[in-house]
Amino acid sequence: MSPDIKSEIEKILRQAVVGGVIQLTAPPNPDMGDWSFACFDLAKKNGKNPVETAKELANLICHPERAPQGRVEGSLRNKVFKDSSPVARNDKMAGGLIEQVQAAGPYVNFFFNAGAAAELVLGQIKKQKNKFGASSAKKSEKILIEYPSNNTHKEVHVGHLRNICIGNALVKLYEMAGAKVVPINYINDFGAHVAKCLWGLNNLPAGKKPPVDKQKWLGQVYAEASKFLAEHPEKKEEIKEYLRQLESKDKKIWKLFLTTRQWSLDGFAKIFKELGVKHQTTFFEKDVKDIGQKMVDELLRRKIAQIGEGGAIIVDLKKFGLDIGLLRKSDGAGLYLTSDLGLAKVKAKKFPKVTQSVNLTGTEQNFYFKQLFKIMELSGFKYQMTHVSYELVSLPEGKMSSRLGNVILYEDLRDEAVALAESETKKRHADWGAAKIRSTAFALALGALKFSMIKVGPKQTISFSIKEALSFDGFTGPYLQYSVARMNSILEKTGAKSGGKNLTILQSGAEKQLVLKLANFAEAAAESAMKNDPSQLSKYLYELARLFSDFYERCPVLKAENKELRNARLELVKAVKSVMESGLRILGIPVVKEM
Predict the structure, then answer these.
(1) Which of 49, 57, 70, 67 is nearest to 9 (CA)?
(2) Which of 176, 278, 309, 556 is deepest in the core (most CB within 10 A)?
(3) Strand, helix or coil at 225?
(4) β partners of residue 462
(5) Largest CA distance in the chain
(6) Residue 281 phi, psi dihedral angles, 5° rounding
(7) Residue 172 is inside which H or E element, if any?
(8) pLDDT tens for residues 420-472?
């Protein structure tokens, strides 16, 4: 709901002696009203029946002179109702923002005047432009968000794509909610997976001659090495030796490690640029692992950690329901917890004023992060730590695995999506040049892929279908992109840069529903930010596009009854286009001018 509209309703309720937090909701049916106030808490507080309380409250709103605290100030009533005379609750309050107030069961329902709402909401959008929809839901917060936390010597697959799309959207959503956001990345460039890849480069035929796409090739070598080693367990000691050499920076493999690591980083940089990922700082496991080992020693001295079986260092978290946390192996080698403790210390030193630190990973790491956060808490970390988890992306055949090599690589998926989008664009625009077709197809492909990753809640598994993602109908990125392109087409046909001045003539049901949906943009964005769930905004944009389609079918724009109405509807089209484009930018979906 528009802050101004919400503020007006809250003022009215306050004047009618409603205290406490005021919660307003949209009724399930527009015929029941535009916004509702539930009287359950108010009735409980006053020891009355909710239905009777709603009737009394509606009567007080319509007859403010009957309020126990005296008459409502004339300035408020004139501002809201414009007709200063008392009106029965079921009569029409003509001319003001609120047209009618009704008691319906335990609810007080507010009906807005369509024209007055249009004048208010469209005026805000025109004035605030791309700042329309901003809120203070996270004002004064400084949020550190760590994503996608990918590994070198592995490929970027569709699972990483979901992480990136959610992370990009959360950065923008937090900013829209008033927070200062610091996006960072933590790259795992050490560990067993690197040792396996380096071993494969030195021992397998596939590792002898690097192709042009070295990043992709390293992932293939890792997958082949993992498969070979699973079939030859006698090679396990060789991998341990590679890992030992890696952690000790042995010159036998250090040069190969640095060279191949850079291949991965170069590949990541290219993909990140394409997907719009911008990190303020990037940390690497090789730089924090030793710091983590020192922290383990410190935890041991402080008796937070203990020596466990075989000399391993552990933290007993059983009393917190978190079992045993293993900080160091019996042979002295570190683990993920070791490195993450080092990372936490480095982050806290570099960003001491952070109010919240967010980690974005798959749900399979839920328990791990509970252990990590509890250990950090016991160690004395003060800022809020949040783990935003998401379910993985599955193939029709089942779960993906880099180790098994049955992943959909991002670059392969992107190329397939671009090819399909290019074919469809050629069918629609045979007169377009190759460059225009290619750029449009690329934008559609990215829109399809990104939207498919965030259109459902993070806790839902995605069974990905490229044909469904690229559909121009239904809950898809291309449908939203097409909606904006359609609005562009309407506006370009008019040749006019200015719209209507009299917006109060926008009185139809379709126009009113569209205006009220626009008014809810800030609420949808804030809800997405607070719930760490970009799908809330995705659903909002889809519903807005559907309402626009309904409006366009019911309310002629270019062939309106008269010029005044035509210009007013053009102003409404501009407003919807502005909000749609803002929402798509937040979600990282490219805006396509023409389709």
Answers:
(1) 57
(2) 176
(3) helix
(4) 393
(5) 92
(6) -145, 145
(7) helix 158-176
(8) 999 999 999 999 999 999 999 999 999 999 999 999 999 999 988 888 999 99
Answer for the pair 522, 536: CB distance below 8 angstroms, yes or no. no
**Residue 326 contacts residue 337 (beta carbons within 8 Å):** yes
- For 85, which DSSP code? S
Tokens of 202: 């030195």
Alpha-helical (H) ranges within 232-365 are 236-247, 251-275, 285-301, 336-350
Question: d(Cα 306, Cα 314) in Å, to the nearest integer?
Answer: 5
Give the angle subtended at the CA of 339 by the CAs of 334 and 340, to the nearest 5°: 135
SS3 100: strand
Take residue 373 and report the two structure tokens written for it: 């956060």
Q: Is 69 exposed, middle or buried (0-12, 13-18, 19+ CB in 10 A)?
A: exposed
Q: Residue with structure tokens 């800030």?
A: 522
- Annotate 439-471 with b (16+ C-beta within 10 A) or e (fewer): ebbbbbbbbbbbbbbbbbbbeeebebeeeebbe
Own/partner pairs for 297-302, CB < 8 Å, 24+ apart?
A: 299/327, 299/341, 299/375, 299/379
Please report the beta strands in 346-471, taking only residues with DSSP state E, as ranges in sequence order: 356-362, 384-390, 393-394, 462-463
User: For residues 334 and 327, what is the distance between their CA atoms, to the nearest angstrom?
Assistant: 7
The answer to whether residues 182 and 144 touch, using CB atoms and an 8 Å cutoff, is: yes
Exposure letters 557-568 (e unless 16+ CB within 10 A, then b): beebeeeebbbb
Calculate ∠ Cα 589-593-595, nearest 5°.
95
Is this prediction's pTM over 0.85?
A: yes
pLDDT in tens, 554-569: 999 999 999 999 999 9
Task: Give the separation between CA 329 and CA 243, rounded to whole angstroms.
Answer: 13
Give pLDDT, residue 104: 93
Q: Give me the residues of the chain with pLDDT under 50, please.
A: 69-95, 399-400, 402-405
Residues 6+ apart with CB under 8 A from 185: 146, 147, 148, 149, 150, 279, 281, 282, 283
Which helix (DSSP H) or strand (DSSP E) does residue 407 occupy?
none
At 522, phi and psi to the nearest 5?
-60, -40
